[in-house]
Specification:
Elements: H1 2-19, H2 29-36, H3 41-51, H4 62-67, H5 72-82, H6 99-152, H7 159-179, H8 184-195, H9 199-205, H10 217-238
Amino acid sequence: MRGFCASGCLALFLLSACSSTPPPQKLTDAQIVYCHSPQRRADLVVAVNALNPQGKVQDGTLDAWRENKANAAAFVKACAAIAPAPPDKPADSGGSPNLWAILLPVLVGGAIALVSAEWRNSATVAVKHADDLGEAADKFQTAAKEYIEAREASKPPKGEPFDEARAELLRQLDRVKRFRSRWEKVVKAKKTLNDELTRQKIDEAMKPQPDGKVSGAAVEARLTGLGTQLARFDAALRRPWWPHRGVR
């Protein structure tokens, strides 16, 4: 009994599947206008008669045949046969947009903005170091030259301004070294200040000669060399994108 029921259900399913009709065909507005055009009456008559052999249609009876609702499906079929097919719609993938296609430009733009901001900040700090170092260097050069001139004139030199200017220049060089740790020439500049341009070293270099004269040429040469090196630091701090070999 169960087998009979199963066989019967299967038979009914197959019959319903075989007897099911496809959804009715639809015409676009362009196709309807095309088939109602007087210039297409002859083509439409031919298509109707070719696709619907049961009822022959002539040009004179086409309008009455088309207005009969019983012939609606036949008209649609004949019209679709002669009218240009509508353009295919682009296939819709139905998937969600690629997440990387959205996020990648955002991430790249954010990274560029971050790097640009960091570079601008670093450049601003570098210029500030250059300004401070340049100011300290100018004060030291002035104080050192006044000290040398006083010694050459056998006058008592002003030691306090010299010591203050020298200490400030050393502080600024320390700041530059922390900012640019790979600049080994900063260490050399500090060594020049500590070993060759102290008041004691200047006094020793400017001892009176046998003829009684006092010359500061040797000390001025050291000052000139130090000033050249400090100028290299200034240029490198203000133009970090340019290769500067004189600072490492």
